[in-house]
Amino acid sequence: MASAALICDTHPWKTLKAHVEDIKKTHLRDLMSDSERCKSMVVEFDGIIVDFSRQQATVDTVDKLYNLAEAAHLKEKIHHMFNGERINTTENRSVLHVALRAPRDAVIKSDGKNVVPDVWNVLDKIKDFSERLRNGSWVGATGKQLTDVIAIGIGGSFLGPLFVHTALQTDPEASKFAKGRQLRFLANVDPIDVARNIAGLHPETTLVVVVSKTFTTAETMLNARTLRAWISKELGPSAVAKHMVAVSTNLTLVEKFGIDPNNAFAFWDWVGGRYSVCSAVGVLPLSLQYGFSIVEKFLKGASSIDQHFSSAPFEKNVPVLLGLLSVWNVSFLGYPARAILPYSQALEKFAPHIQQVSMESNGKGVSIDGVPLPFETGEIDFGEPGTNGQHSFYQLIHQGRIIPCDFIGVVKSQQPVYLEGEVVNNHDELMSNFFAQPDALAYGKTAEQLQKENVPQNLIPHKTFSGNRPSLSILLSALDAYKIGQLLAIYEHRVVVQGFIWGINSFDQWGVELGKSLATQVRKQLHASRTKGEPVEGFNFSTTSLLKRYLEESSDVPKNPQTLLPRI
Ligand SMILES: O=P(O)(O)OC[C@H]1O[C@](O)(CO)[C@@H](O)[C@@H]1O
């Protein structure tokens, strides 16, 4: 295939580069005084308001970004994705996570075959299994009801489901269905995570769900073997059939592991790990905890954004606008990071999930055609819920480096609290900060203002805020299963838009391979040294010394990991 021109060589890219100087001439506080501009920088869709007036951008900037989108063939690329074309070229796969939440009667094809019926076969199987488990018709080996679930998985087989679970936990409707049940996630191969997960649980009442797209991930498989041993030791090996199920694309390996393929929930290679929360990866554990009907609402929320993303004109298209503005911040204004700041404790695991979606998708060094890129892609994503973050890293955001911020607020709290005699309730207090922070960042505080306040001269430089720091405000009408699905899909598509503009492959992750293969070499060495006393060799001086020290000082650690388990 002839290699396509890089986006940075196009006229719209160069025009935007030149436009940066114009934008930098005007402070955000002056841009904010133009109410016509501000009015035009708000989009609303289905209970979600996105206000991007505090971006260092004008209407002209946004127009120029549309030209960039055209040069990058954004519309066509979105169409190719929804059309099931193999846009993940390095893995020769389609990218169809949108099919996971499509209505039953939708038609979405991969290789000419409508995949929606397959999706719904698995959803129906999950509905049936979760109902049987929740109503006690599926019981454990000793006849007891399985009230607790440990989902083993890592990366995309963990972060998305954890985010949704954390967000649903305090939703009044969802939590009603979760009474008496527990859902835990075992991700890290660290034995501490194993010990913490099984603490207080008994195999008799526990179902273990092994979640792995490949069913080869070293950490997940070792954790799966550890919990299989935990169950067998207590209940006998035959109990595994009743206490372990799997979610994977690799049903052959599931069976080899000893899990009945009838108790396996499939998904497909056209679902990327980090885009898999709407597959059985998320749907199974969440349905076991909250019931299928709640999870269906979550899927409907995501689907509403899919329809919007694929059909709304760019001027009204939330993921497209957000994606273009992120490209503006990274590639033109030169801001390498993005803070995701939900003013909702229920969204505490949102930033870690989006961190993987974004950084694993867009942290690339070459174009989709393999051409080294002369510009940076992706951004460093991090975040914490407000107001906690304010008392932690906001100092740097206000007076140190410039980090574009996403403020995410919710109109109606999941758990309103009213305290007699208080001026504002807890949620109002929280939201006061949600409204204040973007203006503090945009407007700042000048030396003149401080002088008027009689601030001592020596403190004026310390108390000055330069302002002119961009942010976005996203206001959700509520935070229920449907809205959680919408929020997820907005960010998934935004990341994809960024990748489409940069001309990279946002769907592979070769960058995780090198470390994995070096770990294999170390693992072999540890095994050979421990079992046959073989000397450490084949590593550089630093690694050899550290490995030797590790082997020497850990020689008295109990050999059987089972001995570690009952400690807490
Ligand atoms: O679901 P699996 O195959 O166990 O993979 C887990 C995670 O590992 C990665 O491949 C990265 O190491 C992610 O992309 C993926 O989400």
UniProtKB/TrEMBL annotation:
Belongs to the GPI family. Keywords: Cytoplasm, Gluconeogenesis, Glycolysis, Isomerase. The lineage of its organism: Eukaryota, Viridiplantae, Streptophyta, Embryophyta, Tracheophyta. Homodimer. One of its GO terms (biological process) is gluconeogenesis. It is an enzyme of class 5 (isomerase). It catalyses: alpha-D-glucose 6-phosphate = beta-D-fructose 6-phosphate. This is Glucose-6-phosphate isomerase. It is found in: Cytoplasm. Signal peptide: none annotated.
